Amino acid sequence: MPASHAPAHPEPLLVDVRSRPEFDSGHVEGALHLSLERLVHEAPAVLPDKDARLLLYCLSGARSAMALQWLQQMGYTEAVNGGSVGTVALQTGRSIRRL
Q1: What's the rounded Cα separation, in Å, for the pair 54 and 47?
Q2: What pLDDT, in 10s, does the model give residues 41-68?
């Protein structure tokens, strides 16, 4: 019997790289907010596991593409660009939450 009951492919951590007002106006349920402007400086503290599965998104996919490049340069191995907030909500089956 395996010692760990963790799933083989855990759900990715959703990371919203939009601005705070954009995040507050509607983000995918359970997403972590880490704006593109703060990403390079705060990712090591907020996302310490560089092998964690990360699903990045923004409004159109452009900022999350830039965030993906930066994270890859920082050594993150399992980050992917999910595109837009709507696409990620549909793909993950999660609702959009507004603050």
Answers
A1: 9
A2: 999 999 999 999 999 999 999 999 999 9
Closest CA to 83 of 12, 10, 16: 16
For Cα atoms 74, 79, 84, give the angle at the middle one, nearest 5 degrees.
Answer: 120
Three-state SS string across 61-99, please? CHHHHHHHHHHHHCCCCCEEEEEEHHHHHHHHCCCEECC
Q: Beta strands 96-97 and 27-28: pairing type?
A: antiparallel
CB 78 within 8 A of CB 8: no
The residues with which 81 forms a beta bridge, in sequence order, are 56
Report whether pLDDT(10) > 90. Answer: no
- Which residues lie across from 13 on neighbouring strands? 54
Query: What whole-number distance in Å separates Cα of residue 66 and Cα of residue 63?
Result: 5
Residue 3, pLDDT above cutoff 50: no
